[in-house]
Model the fold of this input.
Amino acid sequence: MTQQTTALRNDRMLSVEQLTDAIESGEIDTVVLSFTDMQGRLQGKLIHAPFFLESVLGHGTEGCNYLLAVDVDMNTVDGYDISSWEKGYGDMEFVLDLETIRRLPHQPGQVLIQCDLTLTDGTPVSVSPRAILKKQVDRTAGHGWRAVAGTELEFVVYDTSYEDAWDRGYRNLVPANQYNVDYSLLGSNRVEPLLREIRNAMYGAGMTVESAKGECNFGQHEIAFKYDDVLTTADNHTVYKTAAKDIAHSHGKSITFMAKPNEREGNSCHIHMSLRGLDGSVVFEDGGEPTQTYRSFIAGVLATMREFTLFYAPNINSYKRFVKGSFAPTAIAWGQDNRTCSVRLVGHGLGARMENRLPGGDVNPYLALAAMLAGGLYGVEQGLELEAETVGNAYDSAAPHVPTTLREAREALASSAVAREVFGEEVVRHYLHYADVELEAFDAAVTDWEVRRGFERL
Done:
């Protein structure tokens, strides 16, 4: 593997030379190589740092290709093209992205490098979430544009450790706040030791941290990060999500990013997106007015929203968020600064952007950002006209509704000609099977709800 000089994303990221010096001085003893799986989780290896310099930096490493063909419990499941017993569960190559070398301040002595995936013959793994996003980034560049985005990821903090939560069957957990702490400084300060460590660790890991604030659900909070190009944003999102859980564990607490952890407000992941010229110029506005490109881009996101919902809401639980009057959208509609719509328009000039309010905290950011770009570019390429703005309460409007179940979203993707055009048949087939695996597991499960209703009374 030939190493090339790479530009640093910012001065808190590390160059290969800086990493080499830190390893040779003994400051760094572990290099974490990671990729993001279908479920949006970081997977990979912890490499002893001297061995990394000796063997891995120049030659890479491998991992089993079943890592993109398992369920959330890491069970191998039949039906994926990429990996099976018949194919022998071979290897994938971890291709180091040397722009992503970052310290992990909450894990002393560690750095993390994110990777792309190829087959052993060098063929890119097209169903890898990072590869799916990079394909849409290339499409965007072909138009002379660069996409930037920010993800607003909410979570609920519990004063119950992960181990105790498991032992309790995730029942009777103790939220870090016992009442609605939306924008409450008192509520934020209750958990500030945890929030502060996460913020500072993520700044040290190369992210630009903006703020923290309380949210509506008991123990619910959000830490916001500055927007960046879409690939950097997705990379940061996955590192932050894993690190936040690690740091919560060190405090004897737990964090969940589930879309709907209980019957109160769910965890959202609002995604803000804008296009820039490759020279940094404004694309979405001209003279203070939205451009036709902007209008067609929004129209494309809306036109494909039902068909692409599986990429925004990938789990059974995701669909429990879509409740009328909950600040989670049910209508496929757009509005100016209207939080009842699935697409909300905000900002001016360079800040002119669309906010997709559909995704929840369980979203895979690579897939969601890829879906937004794919839909928006489809709208531009087809010259789609933007429908009339929804004014007032979109929950009570006649606008089409988002899918209400994973099964409905799966069928919408299965019947989508646009999805096959912009993602390719291999990607569509892979993620349809992902949905089928989840649906089969859920249909076979006996839930707490069923037992409570039926044990005695039925």
Remarks:
- The mean pLDDT is 96.
- The two ends are 64 Å apart (CA to CA).
- DSSP finds 14 helices and 17 strands in the chain.
